[in-house]
Amino acid sequence: MCGFGKSWIGVDAETCADTRGASPCAATQLSRVRPDGARVAMALPMDVVFFEKMELPGMDWKVAEGLLPGKFDLKIPVPIEKCLLYTVPVRGAGEPLFLVFAVTKESYEARLRSFRAATGLDPEAVFPAAAALAEGCVRLLGGGKPNAFLLHAAVDQWTLVAVADGLLSGVVTVEAGDIDSARRNAKILAMRFPSPPQRLLVSGPGAEGGLADRLNEFAKALPWRAEAVPEPTTFLAAGLARLAASRDGRNGFRERDERHPATRLRRLRACLLLGFTPLVLSAAAFAVAVHQYVRSADRLAQWNGALDRAAARVANGPLPQHGRAAVERAKGLFDWRNPAIAAFAEGSPLDALPALFEAAAARGMTFSSLSFADGVLQIAGQGAVEADVGVLRQAAEKAGYALAAEISERGDGIGFSATVSRREGGAQ
Amino acid sequence: MTLKAYYRRLVAVPLLLALLLCGATYAMRQRMFANVRECVACAEALTSLAPHLEAVRAYGDAKARLRAAGPVRPPEPRLGVPSAKRSDERGPVLDGWDPLAVKYEWPSLKTGQAFAVLESFTSAEAGSWRIAELRLEALPDGESASLSVRLENAEPAPGQE
């Protein structure tokens, strides 16, 4: 059982590798692990791919990207309408800069068919081999902006890739084993470098068996030294996997071609998640809000019912108004009580008389008159000191009534005239 | 429609619906808060009605007491008290109730007797009768007082209520 998990897998001839370069199984066994070809990337050989590094200064990036097909059409021998394009914007460059790859649809379909026949897989991504090789080269040299050559020695052809300032700047394909041709083309490509490259990396199945040494022997006059990359056999496959896994890669040529079902499903899932997650959350919030509103409406209805009942009791009958309006109306209709009986419902200040008499007797006070009418008790009398009236006031308050007094000085003490009435706050 | 446009709509439509739902949720919560505020106002209104409700309750209690007491003769001054000028009143029947009143007047009475009369009229002996008016004035001799007391009652009118 292959242990690729959910990682992208690059396939180069009979070799496959994931982003770390691990190759747990052969390409022929891959169809059992990934029968639908999801997260599988293949490489198009550079003998069928046109490449150009295009800079469009003084333009907006979007406008420049829109003009690319037209400008690239002028550089290739076939009409651009018959090609599939794969463009890589080089972000971080001041002016719009793109790596542009194009392949005729005919060649693309042919290579795809032969890949499907060989592996039984429909790959989800298709990249130009040079893009994956350049990615691997830059990564091997520690990132940044290295200048180097990379010679990928495949079985059927050799691909020479020039990486200048960390970017793919030139590609040449030569016949497999033609070292002289490789040397000549390297010298030509070297002119594109701002400074001469110092290294010539060698990858591919042909790299094993001392190809780097033979290159060093043959090209003694050249300023660079050839060296084999670690894991040369899986170098391209691993580069393909990393390119596919990166954001810039997307799916290469298949982005413009009919999308792979796995791609469509993944993007559909992402769209649904992005679109429907907020919808579900907002629907849940709405449901909670509705529930709370219904509860509050029920509670309000209960309150209004209580107010209606209370108002009906106060007004001695149901009212056409409801809620607080009924309460206000009821307060205005409170005079329905029979006054002959209402008088019996209210307390009388006469209830305070025993307490007042007791307090007066204790202080030696005398009352000269007592009168009670309309709920008000008036008392006039004499005492020794003003504090005596205070004692009377306390006795009245203790009985639940208020006492207001006017005090006058007399020769033998004080005279007072007091009014005892119900305390404020009740309904009249 | 291009695939990109299709994906955009696939995201935009539910997002738009989510936005509409957010707006509806906000409106619903505003209405809920309005209901909560209204409930608070209702509680305050009910509190403001408490004294009226208490008065209605007391009125009902008084009515029940009067009905239970039934026709009661007016209280008489205690023995030993000089006879008083007495006048009886009967008011018009109102809402099925017959208001009654009796007035006693003493131009001069020993102070102690005056207080004894008051005590008898305010005690249980008086039954359901209540003092509606009272006037007690000390006379210049210091030992006597003039007393005027008006007692009221109400009873269900015969054949009514």
Structure description:
The complex is a heterodimer of chains A (428) and B (161). With 428 residues, chain A is of the alpha/beta class. In chain A, 40% of the residues lie in helices and 25% in strands. The longest helix of chain A is centred in the C-terminal third of the chain and has 55 residues. Chain B has 161 residues and is of the alpha+beta class. The longest helix of chain B is centred in the N-terminal third of the chain and has 46 residues. Helix content of chain B is 48%, strand content 26%. The mean pLDDT of chain B is 87. Chain B is rod-shaped. Chains A and B meet through helix 8, helix 9, helix 10 and strand 13 of A and helix 1, helix 2, helix 3 and strand 3 of B. Strand 13 of chain A pairs antiparallel with strand 3 of chain B.
Strand content of chain B: 25-35%
As residue ranges, the low-confidence spans of chain A are none
What's the pLDDT, averaged over the residues of chain B? 87
| Count of discrete alpha- or pi-helical segments spanning 4 or more residues of chain A | 12
- Rg over CA atoms of chain A: 50 Å
The low-confidence parts of chain B are none
Compute the separation of the termini of chain A in Å: 95 Å
List the strand order in the largest sheet of chain A. 10-9-8-11-12
Please give the order of strands in the largest beta sheet of chain B. Answer: 1-2-4-3
Shape descriptor of chain B reads rod-shaped
Overall average pLDDT of chain A: 87
Helix content of chain A: 25-40%
Most extensive contact: A-B, 63 and 63 residues
Provide the β-strand percentage band of chain A: 25-35%
Query: What is the general shape of chain A?
Result: rod-shaped
Throw out a few tags for this protein.
heterodimer, A: about 425 residues, alpha/beta, five-stranded mixed β-sheet, four-stranded mixed β-sheet, 16 strands, rod-shaped, B: about 160 residues, four-stranded antiparallel β-sheet, 4 strands
